[in-house]
Amino acid sequence: MASLIEKIQQIKAEIANLQAKNAEEAEALRIKYLSKKGEITALMNDFRSVPAELKKEVGMKINELKQTAMERINELKQGAAQQESAGEAVDLTRTPYPTPLGTRHPLTIVKNEIVDIFSRLGFTLAEGPEVEDDWHVYSSMNFADDHPARDMQDTFFVEAHPDIILRSHTSSVQARVMERTQPPIRVICPGRVYRNEAISARAHCFFHQVEGLYVDKNVSFTDLKQVLLLFAQEMFGPDTKIRLRPSYFPFTEPSAEMDVSCTICKGKGCSLCKGEGWLEILGCGMVDPAVLKANGIDPDIYTGYAFGMGIERIANLKYQVKDLRMFSENDVRFLDQFVNA
Ligand code: PHE
Prior knowledge:
The chain is of the alpha+beta class and 341 residues long. Helices cover 40% and strands 19% of the residues. Strand 6 (242-249) and strand 7 (252-261) form a beta hairpin. Helix 1 runs antiparallel to helix 3 and helix 5 (106-120) crosses helix 10. Bound molecules: phenylalanine.
């Protein structure tokens, strides 16, 4: 009995003088005294042999000792932790932790690139409303009243109003520029357009276009071809070739569709170009005199060319995005892959 009390006192004295240089040493002390096989825990075993009349007193002493030991060791641990963090070198000249920034949307990256190329060729930016009237989208662009593009199939009407629609191409911006400006006109019109199509990997009810318009005296098809060649080579690389195929648009005459040599196989034929060696990227042509006239420009004095391309199409060729829906689903795992440009 006496030896138990002595032991309690001895440990108590030890505890009062405990020291630890670091967190590991403090932990070693906890193990020494308080773990399952620790010295204070061992006292509990000896406690069994204490006569009943002394149990209360001795029990209190052991509990007190345990409490003091716990407090002391915790104190040592905290002291060690404080010392360790104070010892860390603080570099006050270091820049702050980088804030995670978003990335630009791939369509914005491609749009900026297209706009940039044409800006260098002297084109200025023009924008217009997405909710438009029939005149600017169709009538001023020489679409006959019964032209199939006006059909419900393609055009979204606003509240069944026959005249107010969501623009189905950005040619409406060309019309808006022409009605308020006399030539020379050299504009590039990027923007979102809407068509009533079933959403799939290859089609969407909205997409993005960039259209260009140049009206001046003596503008010829040669000018158009040269500008488009320069554009294709800036966009897809200096070895890119172009070819123009005759086509039809109500607002241009003659009209053409332009292909570029395949960005992957360089014209040899691969799965991207389906063995053709060529990829279609835009529509173009000489502005129909009827369009100039409808928009207040004298077709006897001026001629012009226009072209239009889908931004998604160009982005697909650049990044090989297999599913058009990726562009509008806002999945950060997709969007994060495009480095800010
Ligand atoms: N507006 C046409 C379209 O949406 C593209 C185009 C523009 C074609 C200008 C020729 C000239 O398909």
